[in-house]
Each structure stands twice: as structure tokens, then as C-alpha cells.
Amino acid sequence: MLGYDWPRLHAALNDLPIALLLAATLFDVLALATRRESFRLVSFWTLMLGAVGGGAAVISGLQAEEHISHGDAVHRVMETHETLGLVTLGIFGVLALWRIVRERRMSATERTAGVVLTLVGAGVLFATGLFGGRLVFEHAAGIPTPVLQGELQERGTNHHHEAELDNVVPETDSTGSPAPATHVDPPGTPPHSHAPDTAHGH
Questions:
Q1: pLDDT in tens, 168-186
Q2: Cα–Cα distance between 41 and 43 in angstroms, integer?
Q3: Do the Cβ atoms of 50 and 21 come closer than 8 Å?
Q4: 201: DSSP letter
Q5: What are phi and psi of 133, to 5 degrees?
Q6: Are 57 and 82 in contact, with CB atoms under 8 Å apart?
Q7: CA nearest 23: which of 122, 104, 111?
């Protein structure tokens, strides 16, 4: 499927619903605080799209669980992540259905309750993301074992960045002065010699 297996597809589908549902929460609060119809309208449509995207993320996550090699530690974190994801989808799914049915007839009390429930959903969404991050950054879940083994071997080799080279102490001669830099002629230069103690300039 365009090079995407279930774990990669799940990762690709996560970001958009998270952004949409958090935006829906923000615009819900703004609509309640300002009574502006435009904010309420934006919160409605971002909630609808976010709930649909959240459903796709949860479905792909359930499939990804069956395709990821993992041990007991990863399984425990994965189960928590899954439970939180389902709770998140449940909260925002109920909110979406509620607003579809009652959007035009909501009382002020209903709208306030809706905003409170949206904030609760945003909190659970945040926790879901934290556990998802733990799966990737603490347990390398979703990374095939051969790829992970190759990365570990590469990290064990001598690998330097320029910042590391800046900390190298320069060599000195017997007097403590910096030793002259090694001179290397460019390719194609005819054989020649330099007089002792003279600069190697051309």
C-alpha cells in the first residue's frame, strides 16, 4: 500500500486528527467565551473532521498492534495507549453525534457541558499521545528488528560530528608550541621538497 505497512500508516494518520480535535477544543472555548457564531461553526466542522480522522487512526492502530513484534514491556504500554485511544474516540464521537443532533437547539447549559467534555477529551488525547511517544522513543515499537540491529551496529562505529572535532586538543612540540600542520600537496603536484624550517607556502 504505497510502501506503508500498518504501523507506518498509523503513524501517518495520527497527526491530523490530533490537530483537528485540539483546534475544535480551542474554538469551543472561544465560542463559549465570546458568543461568536463563527467560532462555534469552526469548532463544529473541526470536531466532525477530527472525529472521522480519529476513527481512522484507531482502526489503523488496532491493525498495527497485530503486526508489531514486541515483548511484555511494550505490550503493557501498547494496551494503555490503545485504551486511551478508544476512550478519546468515544468522547469525541459522542460529542460529534451530540452536536449533529442538537447543534441548532442547544441551551447555554448544554453548550457549557459540551465544552467541559471537550476539555476532558483533549486531556485524554494528550495522555494517548504520551503513551504513543513512549512506544516509539523508549521501546522502538514498529521498527523491524533487523533495522534496529543495523542501527545499533552503526552507532557502535566511530562516528564524529564537526562539533566533536572542535574539542580536540591540538598537538604541540617539545617547547609547548603548536606543532606545524601536516602539509599535503594537491593531486597532480610534481615531486619536490621544502627547505627545513621554511613555510610550506606556494
A1: 555 555 565 555 555 555 5
A2: 5
A3: yes
A4: -
A5: -65, -35
A6: no
A7: 122
Which of 117, 9, 110, 23 has its CA nearest to residue 65? 9
In the chain, the percentage of residues whose pLDDT exceeds 90 is 49
d(CA 76, CA 82) in angstroms, rounded, equals 10
- Given a contact cutoff of 8 angstroms between Cβ atoms, the answer to whether 61 and 8 are in contact is no
Task: With CA atoms as reference, report the closest residue to 117 among 32, 17, 57.
Answer: 32
Three cell numbers, residue 138: 523508549
How many helices and strands (H and E) does the chain possess? 6, 0
pTM exceeding 0.90: no
CB 92 within 8 A of CB 21: yes
At residue 172, what are phi and psi to the nearest 5 degrees? -130, 160
Q: Distance between CA 90 and CA 52 in Å, rounded? A: 12
Length of the chain: 202
Give per-residue pLDDT as tens, 25-84.
999 999 999 999 999 999 999 999 999 999 999 999 998 888 777 778 888 999 999 999
The span from the CA of 148 to the CA of 145, in Å, is: 5
- Name the residue with cell 469525541: 92
Do the Cβ atoms of 77 and 134 come closer than 8 Å?
Answer: yes
